[in-house]
Amino acid sequence: MPELPEVETIVNGLHVEFKDKKLEKIELSDPTLLRNVSEEELRERLAGKRLERVTRRGKYIVLEFSGVNFVAIHLRMSGRLLSLDPGDRADHERISFYFADHDRKITMDNTRRLGTLDLLGSLEEEPLDSLGLEPFADEYNWENFNEIFSTTRPVKVLLLDQDRITGLGNIYVSEILFRAGLDPTTPGEEVSQEDRKSLFKLIPRVLTEAINNKGTTLNDYQDSSGKRGNFQDFLRVYGKEGDPCPNCGSEIVRIEQGGRSTFLCPSCQNWDDD
Q1: Most distant CA pair in the chain: distance in Å?
Q2: Which of 144, 165, 238, 263 is exposed most, by the fewest CB atoms within 10 A?
Q3: Is 76 a catalytic residue?
């Protein structure tokens, strides 16, 4: 699933290319994509509107059209949001937005058909209003961050909780916990103040590094122009089971937490499988 750096990379590309373009038409190939709006209402609400901004909230891509219309798209596991020539079709095209004064279209391509689209009248509506701390927003301060640790859940599971802090997924949480030297099974409330401060600094730092490298491509992810990311070349533990730790040489292991894989160095992160 695209995480914050991948979504941010897509957003940056689409915003530069499509800002202020006037919507001409919508082609909907898969109505099951629509979660809170009918096809008829979607077309009616967006007809002739200008795309004022492309932004992000957590892992959601938000197309902000004139007239206070917000299209919130979640790509889920294998989705892509691409800039294509109007005559081209994606392999698994679900919806396309065509623009009257531009020779490109925005197309959602989704092999597994798991992505979603919500049409909102405000950024304070579901599903956006229930998301947790945004790592690059003003709300991301020490006081707010420190409060999310009031739980007995493991810190890895805590950092994946989009209601507590939004945008993080398996890849970056594994990398952040490794850099912090923190056992991912540690209950949130038992994470020391020192480790919390380390995480507070590392989260935006690692995310920024990934954004600067256009995200991580392991399987399906591509940016809006169809290019792969590069941050997979800089991963230290994620997907490295059996490889030597880049810090100490110990063997990197994989464990399961909440049905998801966590990669770690037992030595550097003081983890004991007993």
Answers
A1: 63
A2: 144
A3: no
Catalytic residue among 21, 50, 56, 59: 59
79-84 β-sheet, strand order: 79-84, 105-110, 93-99, 21-28, 50-57, 60-65, 69-74, 116-120
Block means of pLDDT (10 residues each) for the chain, 274 residues, are: 94 97 96 95 96 97 97 93 94 94 91 91 95 97 98 97 97 98 98 98 98 94 94 97 97 94 97 81
pTM: 0.95
DSSP 224-242: TTS---SGGGG-SSTT-TT
The predicted pLDDT at position 274 comes to 66
Phi first, then psi, for residue 194 (nearest 5°) are: -65, -45
Q: Residue 148: its pLDDT value, please? A: 97
CATH fold group of domain 142-264: Helicase, Ruva Protein; domain 3 (1.10.8)
Domain boundaries, the chain: 4-120, 142-264
Is 197 designated active site?
Answer: no
Identical topology for domains 4-120 and 142-264: no
Q: Which of 2, 135, 154, 184 is catalytic?
A: 2
Residue 2 annotated in active site: yes
> Given 52, 241, 260, 266, which residue is catalytic?
260
Among the four given CATH numbers 3.20.20.220, 3.40.50.300, 3.20.190.10, 3.30.200.20, the one describing domain 4-120: 3.20.190.10
Is 59 catalytic? The answer is: yes
The per-residue pLDDT for 214 is 96
